[in-house]
Input
Amino acid sequence: MSPFHRPPVDASRIITIPPHRRRPTPTPRVASPAVERIRSSPEKLDDFWARVVAAGTPLVEGDGDRRIYTWLHRGEAARVALVTNKLIDHTAYEDALFEQVEGTDLWSISLELGAGWRGSYSLAVDDGVVTLEEAGRAEQERRRARSLSVTPPDEHAAINDWYDILAFSRPDPHAHESIWQGSAAAGPLAREPLSIADPPADARGAIVPAGRAGTRWYLPPAADATAPLDVLVMLDGDRWVDADPLLFDRWHAADVVPPTAVLIVGHGDLSNRVNELGCNASFVDELVETIRRAPVAVSDDPARTTIAGQSLGGLTALFAQCLVPERFGVSICQSGSFWWPNHSRDEHAEWLTRTIERTDTMFADVHLEVGLAEWVLLDSVRRMHDALCDRTARLTYDEFDGGHDPACWSVSLPHVLKRRFSS
Output
């Protein structure tokens, strides 16, 4: 049996992060020159706010590698907080509270971040209006219960206060970018999203069932042609296409990918997702069989089959390449959870990295990336990179200025695909 066959690990074994690995690195709060001018001349607030609305938020001031990012809100509220990916949690939420400029209804918070930083965020405005829908509130309460179950009692008050604030989260109405998670911000040196227009209706493909619950095929225009198509497996792909139904049409129209059949894999609830994406050989076998039964002719060349995933999906993308290299020749692992199956520092942690190091496995094409703010993942992804350096014909690696964040992955992935398919 292959050394990469391992029984699935129960979800309860992977949800606990020890306190020494859980807390984010504090982000320096700084003063914004623009806000300080309003503090000294509040009569100029309306003109200032008109410029803010026209330009969008956050304001980005300064030059060099570090910039001042300032988020703003106007209106009556008991408190306002910035909820931004991997910079804030219950241990540091007081650092995310806005300050009200005395004598005005202007609230602001300014943080020092890298000029290339990118991240998703929302504003929690405690004005008595809970904006989350019922499903969102239920998910928040599940997360609250989960956090309470894995933290010591002396942190429970902070956790409850944090989740109370989150109930008021909403997109920033003046954000530069609106995304399906809420709002996004980026510094002047952050990677730019590819500019891709929606294709006309007659240049769109079809999405059809794949014979597996929660999983579908995207078939590009003219997919009935005799030439076999490339294959792209998108783990957690349902999240991508549900957020942007025209995503793959636009990728094809902009030549991000060649004519490609996309297997859009859905994983259901948390427990099922953890089971399938926890180095589960049976799940990988099911993917191979689903590809074999594709509704159109697809290539059997591993160099023309790419599997991509984020977080646990990134772990499984590489695991699938380990297990079935004759099917999966290319893996794209964004913020891969290579700490799996736990975050401890004993022999059970980083199982895939340790297994690769003990074998003579060789890889054709691997892309790894991780955010500098991913305090749980960064070291383990770096160790995986080191393990792959002498074992991979083509290995690319990127550390981006951001967190465990779809706002980063959604910008990076089209660039990675375009670079691979055009080379």
Remarks:
- Confidence is low (pLDDT under 50) at residues 10-22.
